[in-house]
Amino acid sequence: MKWSRKKKRLSFEEVAKFNWEMDTNAELRKNLDELAKQYANLSEKEYRRKLLLSFRENGLVIDPSQLDMLLLLRHKTDQMLLREKVDRDEEAL
Fold first, then answer.
1. Which candidate, 30, 70, 76, 83, places its Cα nearest to that of 61?
2. Does the pLDDT value for residue 80 go beyond 60?
3. Given this model, what pLDDT does residue 4 score?
């Protein structure tokens, strides 16, 4: 079975840029915090549209499938870093 559309693969540079912007871009952080406050009043579709628009306004032009992958990678990276921190803390005891 062939799929009719191919997903664009993310390069290491694209993932690194996304993470860098998420960690250091104060304007993006402010926009995302404001959007999070509106979450209860928005449909998922509208929330994602505004989320992508906020990224675009801050120089990150990504499509919805890329957003899903970037957020998943960021989540997994955070989990790995937290696990390493817990391991180091346990070793220090």
1. 70
2. yes
3. 45
